Amino acid sequence: MSEETEAVYDFCVVGSGFAGSIMAMGLKQSGYKVCMIEKEKHPRFAIGESSTPIADMILRDLSGKYDLPFLGKISRYGEWQGNYPEVICGLKRGFSYYSHQKGKIFSGSHNHENELLVAASENDENSDTNWLRSDVDAFLVKQAKKIGVDVFEETGIAGLTRNRDEKTWNAICQRISKRVTLKCKWIIDATGSPVFSKNFLGTESTSEDFYTNSEAVFTHFEEVPHWLQYLNNRGIYTDDYPYNPDRSALHQIIEEGWTWMLRFKNDLLSAGLLFDRDSHFPDEKKNAEVLWADTVGNYPSLNKLFNNARLAKIPGQFYRTGRLQRKLDRTFGEGWVALNHTTGFVDPLHSTGIAFALCGVEKLLDVYSKQLEEKEILDKIKIIQDQTFKELQFIDLIVSAGYKSRWNFKLFSAAVMLYFIASVQYEQSRLKGVIPNTFLYADDMEIFEVISVTHSEIKELDQNRSVSQMNKLINRIKERIAPFNSVGLMDDEKMNMYVHTAVTL
Fold first, then answer.
1. pLDDT tens per residue across span 334-351
2. Verdict on whether the full-model pTM lies above 0.90
């Protein structure tokens, strides 16, 4: 086995997903020598994700601040297609939710009692996007290489030791048949998993303190018919839809939990089932494919969609997770820090993943770009850690409220508004040039109180309560969000069809 000469860096970023690559590029543009280590080789499969107005705003700000123009060009669907059409994404006009009952064909009406569509943009040109992560991640790694980030793919870390006198790390890396020694001042854990920091940095990860308790089965499909086509074939009224729901983050709400459907412009579909383990714990004896087929088979309309679908060549299989909720006990130490998506995760509901990850990247880059002493850096990262834990708690309350209200779609639709009032407050602040301290305004005491109290009441309102009690709770939610509701949410006249745009893009 050959040995390569030691290389010295200011930062070693472990993991080359979109957050790791953007972090590495921001550090490089701030004057540091940076490398990135990736155990696989791009392009490699990653779960489908969708951007949001918050994610797009952060991309544009990072683009300008760190002279990374391509980030701005992938922050809007129109610009993306005009500049990088070869990088596959999908058009995402908003958030769509449909309620299904076991054994029954989906039914709609002119009043849309079982449908909720919330537009996040006014037109296709300025819309959000669904990310085919294999393409997006590979694209960003390519850009990182262009600006001088040293990227080591197919490379694993076999050992990591700290030289406290020099305040440096020695990383022993295995790269195919070579052993590479890398020396750096800082390790950035961008793996998106608690494993690396547990093995090398002594952290622990826990699922405790989360209200949400979910797991997923997911894959990519080909030849899945469009949902709008299905609705039209069934004669369901869609004339007043603010957009095509296939061009959105499409949520199908079911008794077991919900499904996501994210469509890309090449008609590939990222799809997954989320199970509420508190009320519908999935059979541990079933493998992922059987669990998918058995669950989707309970819902005639969904079963019709996926009946003749084919697994995409990549990944070519179903994946089943354990419990999704996790949080590290700490996010930093001497010479290391974990990015947000490594620190913790709640659930894909409402597509918070990309924006949450980018929010953390933005805050850390702001600290490191100031060229501070290590003690001052650690003091600031401690504040960011506390904010991140608060953000995870906040997201958990919003998501859990959705899970616990899904037995009644009217109540669920009210619970969804908790996410939208928080996101609108955050977006409007950035539009005024003020970057909030926390993602979704998680540290705003008034908003936090609204969401916390509402979550508690939803949790206590079980399915045996009267319609009158449920309607009273819905009215209380409407009253509580009123001070933050500048976009007409919960307006009965809109009949669950929201044409507004939360931000000016």
1. 999 999 999 999 999 999
2. yes
